[in-house]
Amino acid sequence: MLNSADLPFLDALAAELPDDCLRPPEPRYLTEPRGRWQGQAAAVALPRSAAEVATILRAANRARVGVVPWGGGTGLVGGQLQPTGPLPVVLSLERMAGLRGAYPAESVLVVEAGMVLAQVQAEAEKLGRIFPLALASEGTCQIGGNLATNAGGLNVLRYGNTRDLCLGIEAVLPDGTLFNGLKRLRKDNTGYDLRHLLIGAEGTLGVITAASLRLYPKPAEAGTALIAVTDPAAALALLSLAESRLSGMISGFELISRIGLDFLAETMPEVTSPLGGGPAWMVLIDIGLPAGFGVAADHLAALFQAGLAANLCQDGVIASSEAQRAALWRIRESIPEGNRRIGAVSSHDISLPLSLIPQFIDQAGPALAKIGDWRINCFGHLGDGNLHYNVFPNHGKSRKDHENQREAVKQCVHDLVDALGGSVSAEHGLGRLKVDDLLRYGDGGKIAAMRAIKAALDPNGIMNPGAILQS
């Protein structure tokens, strides 16, 4: 049973920390992007070192006070705030944003968890490398939050999730123990891998305070194309064709529907598609070539011709400059903001076996039509099987008109995803939004093991209470 962070607790904690480490909570620590929840907290802790993080967790563990880690506040499943229960302490690592080391010969950066993702990318650029994690929120989200949620983004097809970009971590466990795992090794088989246990745990098993990050060479030549395809099955076939021609060189392969362009026309008319009124389905392809592999635009043109011969493509545009590449990517990167302005009834971050994506799309629309009348924006990272399948009110309605149907819509989509062997959480995590979904769709053995791990590392349940697992 947790206790609120009352005044005696805060006074005692403040005495162990620098004078400006504890503050009253500001609104930005208690809200989330979709406005679904309002958080609460007795205070915000702003440590400057792992030792100060350890002091905070040690005190909270003794007093059984909840701690909610905050890594930029950009999460979409409510993992960064606690709406009910005893008042917790919000723990923000924004002051821990330093560069601890740069190793160009190893293609490694060691950074503190509060560093904003865009700054990590900038530090990699200084070394002539790239840190390939790319998210719409990269100017705000922090690398610690990216690790805690195992964020995905636009380049997973080529470089993997955040987990795959991390060689080692420093973290503080719930009892205040410091785990100094900031190794820069590619291989380390010395027992259980605590790094991978804490990555993706959403702050429920400890607080990541620093990380060794893997960098990659900058492609010598890059290219982008927006191609109209016949349908999602054709998009999948084009992906297979692209991989056979450009194995290991495809950075992004994004599925876009006409509904997404319609939403941009309604809410962000300055963002336009070069493909006229917009075909029903499109793919945005991004490739990066090593030196000596020719011109990217030529490879994309050859791919388009092969797709055309196979009746997969209908039309297309290949960027001929960096400005045109940026304009094509702006279309894809603006879709989430267009969605936000329209207002979804229910948004779904799902993944499926690649070959079953067309079947899911064919079946989900008719299944949802039995519940109501919708506009559906299906888009996302086709290359790694991750769709954002978002359901919106039809013209003349708002999401408030469908509040009583939100759960039915979500269950309809998630039931079908589960039946096809997919996942109801691909890259955003479970947070508090999907706690019940884990119980509904999760494997019993996995859930039992997760509970045992949580009980072993955090027996008092202080870490991000209410996230991932029900209390």
Protein model, in words:
This protein is α+β, with helices and mostly antiparallel strands and 471 residues long. Among the domains are: 99-217, 2-Layer Sandwich (Uridine Diphospho-n-acetylenolpyruvylglucosamine Reductase, domain 3), CATH 3.30.465.10; 219-340, Alpha-Beta Plaits (2-Layer Sandwich); 343-428, Alpha-Beta Plaits (2-Layer Sandwich). Helix content is 33%, strand content 21%. It is built from 14 helices and 18 strands. It has helices at 7-15, 50-63, 117-126, 143-149, 156-159, 194-198, 232-245, 258-267, 296-309, 322-342, 357-369, 406-419, 435-441, 444-457; strands at 22-23, 43-45, 67-70, 89-92, 99-103, 108-112, 129-130, 166-172, 178-181, 207-214, 216-217, 221-229, 250-257, 281-289, 313-318, 349-351, 374-381, 386-393. It has a 5-stranded antiparallel sheet with strand order 5-6-10-8-9. Strands 1-2-4-3 form a 4-stranded mixed sheet, covered by helices on one side. It has a 4-stranded antiparallel sheet with strand order 13-14-12-15, with helices on both faces. A hairpin with a 4-residue loop joins strand 17 and strand 18. The chain is globular.
